[in-house]
Amino acid sequence: MSEDATPVLRAEGLVKTHHGEGAPARAVRGVDLSVARGEFVAITGPSGAGKSTLLHLLGGLQRPDEGSIWLAGRCTDSFSEARWAVERRKAIGIVFQFFNLVSNLSVADNVELPALLAGVPPKKARTGREALLAELGLDGKERSMPGELSGGEQQRVALARALVNHPPLLLADEPAGSLDSKGTREVMRLLSRFHDRGQTIVLVTHDARLASAADRVISFFDGRIADDAALDGTPSKRSGTSGVLELRD
Ligand SMILES: Nc1ncnc2c1ncn2[C@@H]1O[C@H](COP(=O)(O)OP(=O)(O)OP(=O)(O)O)[C@@H](O)[C@H]1O
């Protein structure tokens, strides 16, 4: 297999049960998934289906009870927490619903931090930060603190932070979930723009309209993939009826 044909992300047999106060929640019940370089995959489904848990497993933020994950062909089974942290810094950008910016760091420092932690020389980190913030319409906000920005602006800072190390994979967990309709449109437009330039994206959303920005939509239900369809009309391997029309209606 040539290097380009190696999936950016592959998962096999993922299972995850949460043990909280109440009954155990079987959030992910056996997921196989392969994401090719340059794909924009949306994972959509109802609240509680297990979407966020799946994304957390894919980004190494939680460990599966069973199953394996490969990043660019490298099996992560033996990764320590520290190794996963390094991978997230270099190979995986993540944006969350509530931005997760460091509140006592400026916009500039929030975006530069992952680059500096990855060993990028300060001058190069600054150049990268400046280019991304300009691209995301945030030049002039470098010295602002996150709390001084609108939700949409904070999410754009989070996007800049996620992309500053040019990770092969971007994971997005309900990135528009706490934004108004203008902020939602903006985030989706930006995700589409980065995808057009080759960024591989896995987006989790309960909103089927947002999912239609992707070129492949996975319907997630009760911890399992119920349907997996490319939006170019390619028939689903998992069901006789494509989920595309339902999602676009
Ligand atoms: N840390 C946790 N401890 C206990 N149960 C959890 C935990 N995280 C998630 N769950 C449970 O696991 C199931 C799946 O949750 P998850 O957040 O993955 O679903 P989701 O599809 O992302 O939902 P939503 O769209 O509402 O965010 C739910 O029953 C949830 O209550």
From TrEMBL:
One of its GO terms (cellular component) is membrane protein complex. InterPro entries: AAA+_ATPase, ABC_transporter-like_ATP-bd, ABC_transporter-like_CS, ABC_transpr_LolD-like, MacB-like_ATP-bd, P-loop_NTPase. Belongs to the ABC transporter superfamily. One of its GO terms (molecular function) is transmembrane transporter activity. This is ABC transporter ATP-binding protein. Residues 9-247 form the ABC transporter domain. Keywords: ATP-binding, Nucleotide-binding, Transport. It comes from Streptomyces pluripotens. Pfam families: ABC_tran (PF00005). It comes from the Bacteria.
